[in-house]
Amino acid sequence: MTARYLILEDGSVYRGESFGAPAVTTGELVFNTSMTGYQEIITDQIYHNQIVIFTQPNIGGSGINQANYESILPSIKGVIVRELANVSTNRIRRLSLDQYMKQMNIPGITGIDTRAVVRRLRQTGSTLKASIVPEPDEHAFDQLSATVLTNQQVAQVATSKPYPNPGIGSSVVVIDFGLKHGILRELSKRKCNVTVLPHTATAEDILRLDPDGVILSTGPGSPYDLGQSVIEMIQLVQTQIPLFGIGLGHELFAIANQAKVTSLPAEHHGMNHPIREIVTTHIIYASQGQGYAVESKSVDRSRLFITHIDLVNGTVQGLRHRNFPAFSVQFFPDGAPGPDETNGLFDEFMETMHSREG
Amino acid sequence: MPQNIKKVLIIGSGADKIGHETELDAATYQVGTSLQQLGITTILIDNNPFSFALDGNGIDQIKILPITLSNIVTVINEFEPDAILPNLGGLDAIRLMQELIETGILREQNIKLLGIPDASIRQINNPVLLNQTLKQMNAPTTTSKMVRDFEGALTITSLIGFPVIIKPVAPSGGSTRRTCHDNDELADAISTALGQSRVGQAMVQQSIAGYKEIELVVLRDRKGTTMQIAAIEDFDPIGIHAGDSIAFAPTQTLLDREVQELRNWAFAITRKLRIVGVNHVQFALNSATGKFYVIKNSPYFDRMTAFAARTTGYPLAIVCANLVAGKTLSEVKLPASFAPKTALIEPAMDHIAARVPIWPFDVLPAAANKAISTQMHSTGSTIGIGRSTEEALMKAIRATQFHAVNFTIEQQRKLSDDQMVQLLIHPRANRIMVLMEALRRGYSISELAELTKIDPFYFHKLKKMQQLEQSIANQPGDNQILRQAKYYGFSDRFIGQLWQLPEKDIAALQAQDNIKPTYKEVDPSAGEFEQHSGTFFATFEQENESTPINQKKALVVGSGGFRLGNGGAADYFTASILQQLKSENYFTILLNNNPNSISMSPALSDKQYIEPLETPDIMQIVALEQPDIIYLPNIRKRLYQELKNLDLPIVLLPQNGAILSHMASGAEFAFNAIFDGKHVYSLGIAAYLIQNKSGFGEPTAMVYPADLSQSEKDALTEQGVRDIQQQPEPGLYQTLFVKTDRLHKEQTRIITLPEISFLSKTLGISLSKIATSLVNPSPDVDLELENVVNIQVKQSSAFASTFPFKSLQLYDEPITANTMVGAEMAFGENTTEALQHLNVQGKFQFHAGSLN
Predict the structure, then answer these.
(1) Does the active-site annotation cover A334?
(2) In chain A, what is the straight-line distance between the N-terminal and C-terminal CA atoms, in Å?
(3) Under 8 Å CB-to-CB from A4, ≥6 apart: which residues?
(4) How far apart are CA B234 and CA B245, in angstroms?
(5) Local structure of A152: helix, strand or coil
(6) How is domain B212-349 classified at the architecture level of CATH?
(7) Between 20 and 30 A from B538 (CA), which of A257, A310, B208, B338?
(8) Fold match between B7-114 and B541-652?
(9) Among B632, B697, B710, which Cα is nearest to B667's?
């Protein structure tokens, strides 16, 4: 293996060894503390523009398999690990992580002091840009600071054309902002007749399909990069059809109802924070991946109420509309990867649709 | 808190044995302390002389009695507790709780059972009942069915698949248990089993041998909030007892989906049984199909809860104490060192921990020849923490290695190919070394995975280690290779062997090339928060997180994994030293690697290093920390020499009762005393009950005080005082005597570790603390030794060691201080009564020599 460097815009340099594609890459550096599910994380489109550091050192131990993709063409910029297990021994393996990343043109570095990088990020307290480069020279740092990351992230990862995922149950429209497959998987489990529409779909496009419910999917980047048309679409659709927003979809739903979304000083990616479901006071765990959060005090209590709160950082994790059958969560209830404890939200969405049909 | 608990009776765990060592006492100390902090009075019943809790650590009221139903009732009547906590006494305590429930006393006196509801106690004690519950929940359990003929067996086998286990139902006389892999074997086994059965029935049981074993540790509060603390993967497949298996945290080969499914079931079962506090659920996973089965549920502290707590840094015992006291997880506030105070953040690990069992072959060579199986044979374990699977495993193996001849490479090289195949299929205790040797001999990964049922992932890792070993051997002196070897956890000694250089030279080479360990903190948030557990491990990376503090510092080197002989007593002593040093305002640093040890309880020291106890590893820590004083176990001769060369102040801990050769044969006595350098303070005379042919002064069984006439006592005391007065150093001493027609003085020695524990509990003083202060007197500490002399012993006490022979299926092994696994003690009005109380279950046999 050849030497490869992770360089940060604050000037720090970490040496490791190359795996995956031999490409040079630049992105925002974020860390994920999940101990399982590297395949799901690497293929989640929320990591468009981002280089992910896994805090769990042993990555690659169960290979890559056909059942756990969260997208067809992952858009993650790079993967940083302490110890690549370049083996693939799980019964449903297809590829090793290294092979997969080569195929998908994703560069990686193994042998990095990942804990040192994470501590650095924590001390900095803000998101840093970073590059994976063959030499940590002046040129590389110049390139790094010159790189401007796109803010047209959703357009780059979401579908541009509608497509169906037919089923025999309720008709659901999923608006794709860079959706993770987990959402479609959960709808398939519930036999839904799904149509995925591009993020540019208008309320008219949606209503024409006469769906029983609409899901605003997960996706990368800032909700404010999407423009007013999406907000208007949500404002109209929520008055007529049951609506469920997830991740970026949740942030858009909040904005459509006059709440403010702000970027977190440090992104949070993991599955170990306790989340309180306010009505029941139950504590639940779910996969989280967020660089933005709904500002709690901006929530207009006459329109929305807060349903879920992260007990560690106090962020709003769920909202529900007072007048319409519309709700949203910041975390990922499809549990791919992560705990299944919030999976019932999909059932709740089904019930909302049924009660409306009935 | 709705339950207004004021007084809790904790059921202790008794003598250490194969199956549990000091982890239960360590948990008792921690849970007891937390309960006290909640304003609850704690009472402990136990009879383990090596118990740290039984010295009053975390405990308000101590009752030294054998843990039997009638004694528990006695204690209840004496102290009138309003609750009983049974989850610190292992499965034995759970069994006793069922008997206690059946007496009706709990209902009559309105005593609450904490942690496990009555109905669940019954289920934990009765696998059939528990299985029914699991079936009702649709939890995946293994299938077994009674059949009357071959057709019936075929039907059930077609459902569950081969292999199946066949055995007779209600056998008359002989009973054959067979594993069948095809119809022919099945036909044969069924006809045998039906022939053996009195009722013409055979049991067809699904076999899970060879499946992967996964263990989850979870916490639940009384309101039903449940969280996962750790998921642990066993390296060895089912068929080998989990306690004898190498284990890793977190899981190394599982998909997220698999872990989540296990989590869902672990949570569901814990909720169904309404467990409050800790629960440990074991699963079997069939890697070929992805199907898994619930195989065991243990809602009490055990080796895996200890492993989970030590390796994640999560304060499991503290939180658990709060939960059983009635708090919810949301209400529990973590100690000051944690950044977010909520107990609800599930631990995330950014390191890997390996647990490797220790087998007692150093003192019982016969045990080394035993196949490892579904019965546990190991006495303890060590952990290795690193930043790769390889490094963690390497460090854990190094941590166990101390004496074991069977772990050497030379030993493995001698194996014939036939022996090798036999050992692969019928593993022995040193299996990991055999696997490495098999890789050296060119066995392929798939072959080995097939033969051993161990996940190929691990063979990839072992192969990597073996290839690195080859590269080291091929490139002597190469600094890049040296750096890599250290990165993956290789010891200086091993590299030295491969390069035919002394260990010291390897350290010198590293210094030359600036190859230095970096210490990382065990942090349950994986770096997300700025918080400090105070527990560190070494790895060879970019950033070092351990900075020495500028304060009076003591480094205490622990005794490592639990071994026969010194295990419990040495750990008790280490824990006491730490406590004493802390009270003398030392910043205490502990170096140890036994996840179960009391000394590793986080509150006992200011800083802990989880590292192998090999000389170079210790020297690195000494170089970083620059301690003012170092405490070493007596057996660490080489380390002692190295430190001496550096002119560092060292204190050696007492030995483990070395046998001295006989001068005369007869009843043996010891006059015990404290010597402060000037005065000798008498601690009285004890009598040994078991005379060993090979020597005297074996602390395997004894009574205190000895039944001697006043004139004999005076004579012994006089001579003892005179002898001890001449010792060059202050300390705890004993002068040994043999009584034939008269009393012969034999020799004076430092009081042995088992006797220090026993005498401390007998006299109600902490001799280990006194010993600590004597060797390193602090002007701030007044030992008040005058008070010690004035102790009036009103009772007699008796001590007897317990031995592991039955668990190990060994016979005719010597009863010596080196082969003891644990001990029990008891009090009485006189010697006879103390012995009666001790021997309540009739398990001890004493020589009467010293009793008259």
Answers:
(1) yes
(2) 62
(3) A15, A16, A17, A18, A107, A109, A132, A133, A134
(4) 6
(5) coil
(6) 2-Layer Sandwich (3.30)
(7) B338
(8) yes
(9) B697
Tokens for B475, please give them.
């490139």
B347 inside 8 A of chain A by CB: yes
Taking domain B144-206, whether its CATH number is 3.30.1490.20 is answered by: yes
Q: Which of B389, B455, B542 sits opposite A58 (nearest CB)?
A: B389
For A62-85, letters b (16+ CB in 10 Å) and e give bbbbeebbbbeebbbbbbbbbbbb
Q: Do A56 and B388 touch (CB under 8 A)?
A: no
Asked whether B372 and B423 are in contact (CB, 8 A), the reply is: no
For chain A, give every residue range classified as CATH 3.50.30.20: 3-149
How many whole angstroms separate alpha carbon B591 and alpha carbon B768? 19
**Chain B closest-CA separation from residue A269 CA (Å):** 10
Q: What residues form DSSP beta bridges with A18?
A: A109
Domain ranges of chain B: 7-114, 144-206, 212-349, 404-515, 541-652, 667-838
The pair of three-digit structure tokens given for residue B39, joined into one six-digit string: 């304003």
Q: What are phi and psi of B53, to 5 degrees?
A: -65, -35
> CB-based contacts of B668: which residues, under 8 Å, 6+ apart?
B687, B688, B691, B696, B697, B736, B737, B738, B739, B849, B850
The topology (CATH level 3) of A154-357 is Rossmann fold (3.40.50)
Tell me which chain A residue has its CA closest to the CA of residue B445.
A89
- The tens-digit pLDDT sequence of chain A (358 residues) is 799 999 999 999 999 999 999 999 999 999 999 999 999 999 999 999 999 999 999 999 989 998 999 999 999 999 999 999 988 665 666 799 999 999 999 999 999 999 999 999 999 988 899 999 999 999 999 999 999 999 999 999 999 999 999 999 999 999 999 999 999 999 999 999 999 999 999 999 999 999 999 999 999 999 999 999 999 999 999 999 999 999 999 999 999 999 999 999 899 999 999 999 999 999 999 999 999 999 999 999 999 999 999 999 999 999 999 999 999 999 999 999 999 999 999 999 999 999 876 5
State whether residue B802 sits within 8 Å of chain A by CB. Answer: no
Structure tokens at A64: 């890559």
User: Cα–Cα distance between B52 and B55 in angstroms, integer?
Assistant: 5
State ipTM.
Answer: 0.97
Q: Which pLDDT value is given to residue B1?
A: 45
What are the φ and ψ backbone dihedral angles of B560, each rounded to 5 degrees?
75, -155
In the chain, the amino acid numbered B99 is: E
Cβ-defined contact of A122 to B528 (cutoff 8 Å): yes
| CATH 3.50.30.20, domain A3-149, yes or no | yes
| pLDDT value at B847 more than 50 | no
**Residue extent(s) of CATH 3.40.50.880 domains in chain A:** 154-357
Interface probe for B, chosen from A38, A58, A271, A276 (most Cβ of B below 10 Å), is A58
Cβ proximity of A219 and A248 under 8 Å? yes
Q: Which CATH number fits domain B7-114: 3.40.50.620, 3.40.80.10, 3.30.1490.190, 3.40.50.20?
A: 3.40.50.20
Q: Would you tell me which CATH number, out of the four given (3.30.565.10, 3.40.50.20, 2.40.240.10, 1.10.10.10), belongs to the domain B541-652?
A: 3.40.50.20
Q: For B134-159, write each residue's pLDDT tens digit.
A: 999 999 998 888 899 999 999 999 98
Going by the DSSP 8-state scheme, the letter that residue B237 receives in this structure is P
> B3 pLDDT exceeds 90?
no
Length of chain A in residues, anyone? 358
- CATH number of the domain at B667-838, out of 3.40.50.620, 3.30.470.20, 3.40.640.10, 3.40.50.150? 3.30.470.20
pLDDT in tens, B667-713: 889 999 999 988 999 999 999 987 666 567 778 889 999 999 999 99
